[in-house]
Amino acid sequence: MTGVQLRNLGIRYGQVEVLKGIDLDIPASEFIVLLGPSGCGKSTLLNAIAGLQDVAEGQILIGGHDMTNVEPKNRGIAMVFQSYALYPRMSVRGNLSFGLKVAKVAKPEIEKRVAHVAKMLQVEPLLDRKPSQLSGGQRQRVAIGRAVVRDAGVFLFDEPLSNLDAQLRSDLRVEIKRLHQRLKSTMIYVTHDQIEAMTLADRIVVMKDRIIQQQGTPDEIYNKPANTFVARFVGSPAMNFLEGVVKGGDAIVDGENLRIAAALSSPLVDGRKVIVGIRPEDMALQADEAALGLAVEVDVVEPMGAERMVWCRRGDIGLSTRTPSSTKVKSGDKVRLDLSEERLHIFDAETGKRL
Amino acid sequence: MFVRSPSSSRLQAVLTLVPVAFVVLSVYVGGVLWAAGISFTRSSMLPNYRFAGFAQYINLFSNARWQVSLGNMALFAAIFIPATLLIGYSMAAMINRGVRGENALRTIYLYPFAMSFIVTGLVWRWLLDPNFGIADVARKLGFENASFNWIVNADMAIFTIIIAAIWHSSGLVMVVLLAGLRGVDDDLWKAIRIEGIPAWKAHLFIIMPSIGASIATALVLMSLTVVRLFDVVVAMTGGGPGIATDVPAKFIIDHMFERQQVGLASAAATTLLLLVLVVAVPLLYLKDRRKGAAR
Ligand SMILES: Nc1ncnc2c1ncn2[C@@H]1O[C@H](COP(=O)(O)OP(=O)(O)OP(=O)(O)O)[C@@H](O)[C@H]1O
Ligand SMILES: [Mg+2]
C-alpha cells in the first residue's frame, strides 16, 4: 500500500507563489479531500503530486520513495479529470487499453483487466462505443475505469463530478466511495463542493491563500473549525457570526450577555475582542417574544420540506436558523433565538483563530 | 406589439438572397456548364456548336503535353500534401507547446503565404539559379565544386517547384492546425503524460484525430493549391525545361488563349473540375461528419 507525503512543498508560476510550506502526510488507503475556494491552488497541488507541475521547493514522497523529479508515468498514480479527457477517436475499449498497450502489458492480461474494470463500473455494454456516443456520466465512468485499469496505488481526482447534474453527481459519488472500499487505494480528491468533501473523506484538507488552513476528519472540520474561514466555508447555510467583547467571562454582543464559558477551554481576559460563531441548527427559534434568547425580527422564511430556513435580522446583523415546519413564523415576526451555549464557537477577532 | 414570426423573417432572408443566388448560379455554374458543353464541340479558335462527341477528350488524353501535366500534378500532390501537412503540423505542435516569441514565429512562418505565388516563384528561381543562387553562395564560401542545377534539369525541375510550394503553404497549414491544437483540452495532455504515451503515438492516435476538422480544412486548402498550380510554375520555370514542369492549369490557359484550341482547353478544364469534385467532396463530407461527431 502506498502513502503520500508532502514536505514543505512550494510552487510558483514565474514570480507568483501559488503554494507554500505545504506539509501533508497521507497514510496508505486513506481517502483525503482537498477542499477550498476556486483559485486556492488545489489543482496545482494535485498536479504536483502527479508530476505534471514543477515544484519550486520541497519534496514529494510516494510509497516512501522520493518522487519529486520522477516522470508522471513512473509514479504509480492514476488520475481522473473534470473534463474526462478521454481519447476522442478511440472506442471505450481502446481508451481503457491504450495506456496498457503502450506500457507493453501482455495482451491476455490487458483483456482480463479491461473486462474486470468494465464489469466493475458497468460499462460493459458501451465497450465498442466512441466517447462522443456516451453521456456525461458514462464518460466519467469510463475515465474512472481508465484510471482503475492502471492498477495504481494512488488515485488523483480533480473535481471529477463538477460537469455532471445533481442526480448523476450523487450516484457517482457513491460509486467512487464504493470503489475506494473495494480497491483500498490511497485517493486524493479535489473539490470545492463541501457535500462531496463531507460524504467521501476520511480526512479533509481545507486550503486557502497558498496554505493549508486545517486538516482533520469531516467531524473535526465541521465541529471544531480552526478559524473563521473554515467555519464559514464549511456548512450550508454558513455559520452565523456575532462580534463581541469579553466581560466577566461572558461575551457582550450588541448589549446582550452571551454565556461563552462552556465553549472555551480556558477563560479569557476582560476586554478581549472575539467573534462568536453559531451554526443555524444550533439555535432554537422561540416564537414567544418573551422567551429567553437573542431578540430578532424574521426577515425571510424559506420552506424546505420537513424544515424551514428562517433568515432573521438584528440591526445590521443577519442570522439564519432552521426550524421544523410546524413552527409558525412569518416575515416581520418578532422572535427570539435560543443559542445552545456548548455549541458556540469562539474565535479571536484579530487573527480569526479558534480560541 | 408586432412580433415578426420566424417564418416571415426567413422568407425575407430568402428573398434577399435570391438575386445573389441567381447571379452565382448563372455566372459560375453557367460558365462551368458552358465550358463543359464546348468540350463536346469542334470549337478551335472560336467557340462553335458543332457536336463532336468525345473527340476533344480523345485528343486530350493522347496529347503528350497533357499526360506530362497530369503526371506532374500527381507527383506534386503526392509529395506536397504529406510534406506540407507534416511540416505545418510539426511547427504548430512546437508553437503550441509554448515556445518563447510565439507571435514572432507565427508571423515568420505565415509570411511566405502573404506573398503571392508569383513572388514566391521568383524568389526561389533566384535562390536555385545555378549561377547566382545558393550554389554561388556555397562556391564563394569555399565549396569550389558546389553546383545545384535542379531547376534547369528536366528530371529534377518539378521538385524545385514542389519545394517552393511547400515553403509557401506550410505556414498557412501551421496556422490552421494551431487553431485546432489550441482547442485541445489541457486535461487530455495531462492524461497522455500520466499514461506515459510517447509523443509520436500521442500525436498520431490521440491529438491528430481530435483535430480532424482542422486537418480536413488544411487538406481542402492544399488540394486547391494542387489543382490551381499555375503561377509558381510560370514564375519559376515557365513550364520548362521543355514541357518538363507543365501542369494542367497552364495547359488549359495556353490552349485557351495562345494556341486557340478552345474545345481542347475546355475538355481539359472539365476533366480538372471532375478531379476536384472527386477529391474535395469526400473531404468536405469528412469534415462535416467530424464536426458533427465532436458535438
Ligand atoms: N499557468 C498558470 N500561470 C500562472 N498562474 C496560474 C497558472 N495556473 C494557475 N495559476 C494560478 O494559480 C492559482 C491556483 O490555481 P489552481 O488551478 O490550482 O486553483 P484551483 O484551486 O484548482 O481552482 P479551481 O477550483 O477554480 O479549479 C490561481 O490563482 C491561478 O490564477
Ligand atoms: Mg482546479
Structural overview:
The complex is a heterodimer of chains A (355) and B (295). Chain A has 355 residues and is α+β, with helices and mostly antiparallel strands. Chain A has two domains: 4-233, P-loop containing nucleotide triphosphate hydrolases (Rossmann fold, 3-Layer(aba) Sandwich), CATH 3.40.50.300; 240-348, OB fold (Dihydrolipoamide Acetyltransferase, E2P) (Beta Barrel), CATH 2.40.50.140. Chain A is 24% helix and 35% strand. Chain A has eight helices and 20 strands. In chain A, strands 6-7-8-3-9-10 form a six-stranded mixed β-sheet, sandwiched between helices. In chain A, strands 13-12-11-14-20 form a five-stranded antiparallel β-sheet. The longest helix of chain A is centred in the middle third of the chain and has 18 residues, at 166-183. The two termini of chain A are 38 Å apart. Chain B is an all-alpha fold and 295 residues long. Chain B is built from 13 helices and no strands. The two termini of chain B are 38 Å apart. The model of chain B has no long low-confidence stretch (mean pLDDT 80). Chain B has a single domain, classed as MetI-like (MetI-like fold, Orthogonal Bundle), CATH 1.10.3720. Chain B is flat. The interface between A and B is medium-sized, with 29 and 20 residues. Bound molecules: adenosine-5'-triphosphate and magnesium ion. Adenosine-5'-triphosphate is lined by residues 13, 16, 18, 36, 38-44, 192 of chain A.
Task: Kindly list the characteristics that best describe this protein.
heterodimer; A: 355 residues; alpha+beta; Rossmann fold; OB fold (Dihydrolipoamide Acetyltransferase, E2P); 2 domains; 5-stranded antiparallel beta sheet; 8 helices; 24% helix; 35% strand; elongated; B: 295 residues; mainly alpha; MetI-like fold; flat; binds adenosine-5'-triphosphate; binds magnesium ion
